[in-house]
Every structure is written in C-alpha cells, then in structure tokens.
Design goal:
By secondary structure, the protein is of the alpha/beta class. The protein contains 8 helices and 7 strands. Strands 4-3-5-6-7 form a 5-stranded mixed β-sheet. A two-stranded antiparallel ribbon has the order 1-2. The longest helix is centred in the N-terminal third of the chain and has 18 residues, at 37-54. It starts with 5 loop residues before the first helix and ends with a strand.
C-alpha cells in the first residue's frame, strides 16, 4: 500500500482526526490539496498559521476572535440587555447565521455532568451570574442543546438566576429533542428564537 511519504501519511492522520472526517475523507482532502499545492494548499497553510498565531478566546463571552473582545462584545449596539447562553462556539456561530438575535452571548464551554466531573465552576456559571448583574441584562435566553445534559444545565442556570429579577427564557418550537444547534438550518433556529418561552 503505497500512499505517499511519511509526511503525507502524517497529514492524512491529522486531518482524519477532525470532526466529521475519517481516513477515507482525509485521503481525498489531502490528494485534492496536493493537486492544488501551489495555490489552495499554500493559501490554506498560510491561513492556518495565521489563525494559530492570532486566534484567542473573548475574555467576556468565550467566542473566538482575534482580539481580547470579539466583534459582538465590542459592538455597543449589541448591549441591548439580551444575553444568549450557548454550549459552545459552534452554537454561537449557528445562532449568528440566523441573523435574528442582536444581543450578546455567553459560551459555557460544555454542560453540567457529574459523570465527567463538570460542575458550575468549570462552566463559568458564577461568571455568567456576575455578567447578568454587571451588564444590565434584562433577559437571559438559554439556547442550550435539547439533550438531557443541556436541559439539566438550563434548569440549573434558571434556578441560579431566579432571585435576580432577570427574565429567563429558552428556545421553543423548531429545536428537536436530542437536536444540536450546529446541525440545524437557519430557518429552524430563527423560528425557535422568535418563539422562546419563559422557563
């Protein structure tokens, strides 16, 4: 089985580790890049090096950007009192694709899980509660995945915010049980956001 040099094999192995790709898909990607190595592959390598050097987590919300504050947190027009809580950055990006939500976000980085020893402190839930108080938040929208862990986390946050006077809502119609935001189409996300309900 002659499939190229050790470097090519190492590249295939690295790409195969990416979400949604296996060894066969990785081989096809690497072959396509090698065929276009003077254009597409060189540009991709340069962009990957640039992103590796410049990408950082927003100190306020947890989004990924190129400065301490992401463009959403830096935009004063987004400080409208609405704060949308999501599980991870992919969910934030999915919400942004719908182009309906104009507030700010808070990325938890996961969900509560006793089995994995992930508690409120690991998810930055105390930081979320401080943000609600410090930023004049009037509504917290819990846009967590419709999984057991997502809903458990949503209920925990709703209870933690109960005495703050802030309105706590969650996504309604459109998000199937067991569904994940990153895999939903823009129309479904928009409908779910419009029909959010109090928890």
């Amino acid at each position: 089985m002659a499939e190229g040099s050790d470097d090519i094999q190492a590249l295939i192995a690295q790409i195969a580790r990416l979400p949604g790709l296996g060894p066969r898909s990785a081989r096809r990607v690497v072959l396509a890049l090698i065929r276009r190595r003077t254009g597409q592959m060189a540009q991709l390598a340069a962009l990957m090096a640039q992103v590796a050097q410049n990408a950082r987590e927003c100190v306020r919300c947890g989004n990924i950007g190129e400065s301490d504050l992401c463009p959403i947190c830096a935009d004063p027009a987004r400080a409208n009192g609405e704060l949308c809580v999501v599980e991870d950055v992919a969910d934030l990006w999915a919400m942004e694709r719908g182009r309906i939500f104009r507030g700010r976000y808070h990325v938890l980085g996961g969900t509560l899980s006793a089995l994995d020893e992930i508690g409120p402190d690991e998810l930055g839930i105390p930081r979320l509660i401080h943000r609600v108080a410090d930023e004049g938040v009037t509504e917290v929208i819990l846009a967590l995945n419709a999984t057991v862990e997502g809903q458990t986390t949503a209920h925990y946050i709703a209870e933690a915010l109960q005495d703050t006077g802030v309105t706590v809502t969650g996504l309604a119609q459109g998000v199937p049980i067991g569904g994940e935001l990153d895999y939903l189409d823009d129309g479904t996300i928009s409908a779910a956001l419009r029909a959010r309900r109090r928890l």
